[in-house]
Known about the structure:
Layout: H1 20-35, H2 54-59, H3 62-71, H4 94-106, E1 113-122, E2 131-132, E3 140-149, E4 155-160, H5 177-185, E5 195-198, H6 205-213, E6 217-220, H7 261-265
Parallel strand pairs: 1-5, 5-6
Antiparallel strand pairs: 1-3, 2-3, 3-4
Amino acid sequence: MNKAVPKERSRWKKWTDTDEKELRLFFSVLFLQGIVKKPKQEYYWSKRHILQTPIFQQVIQKDRFILLMKFLHFTNNEEFDKDNHPWPKLNKIYDIMEHLRNKFRNLYIPDKNLSIDESLMHFKGRLSWKMFIAKKRARFGLKFFVVCEVGTGYIADFLIYTGNGTVYNPKFANYPVSTKIVLQLMDRFLGQGYCVTMDNYYMSPQLADILISERTDLYGTVNKMRKDLPPNFAKEKSLKVTSLLTKGIPIKDKLKLPDTAKDLNNRCPGPDSSRPSFPPPDGCYGDERISRPPTPLRKRKHRK
């Protein structure tokens, strides 16, 4: 617990030791919150009819859940040794992270087609390696490199980016960072006939040679400024694409006003349709039928 002295009415004074059964309930509620989305934590225990989800109140009390969330630790801070720890920046979650990685690897064998990309887990707290990526949905958070099964999106393995403190496998120490990431994520899949897809951040001729030598196919785009590409690779221009536009039966460009209302109704004989038929019948003007414009949507983008 924190060494600060709690106030008289603080929740801290209600703390009691937990057990395995209660922790199982706690984690089940966390998983359920990932399925049942609500904007605020307290809404899960709300008794208002419009917000109520009774299962949360039946499983665990709100105050107890908040206490468990506050004091949840996976390691003992007093036993931490920065010089001997395998990944000092992740010492708080290292044990549970390795446990999850082993489960992901051992419980399921992914299909042949894999994909490597980065993911951003939403986080706005104080952390030295917190990232901002404008194109990602979360925008602020922790950056992960993940290898996923293409068909299902199953995460077969992952690597957390912690800036300069990111720990890579020592046997890939002589390669560039982008190549290290791919080889570390694909290490257990090499030599088994897998096919991996990636973008131009990872793709390079050097990586392609390594994967092909390990009986692993790869797809992806490549930056034309990469080393070891052919000399004229960046200078080659794509072939010019030409297009041919043709016009069918000419349609009169101006409307002809009819003399009578009856003439207007009989101008375009044939079945009624929301769109004019092409080519139009004889004596019919293709631009007489003007479709109703769609209802404009609100353009203002709401933000919190």
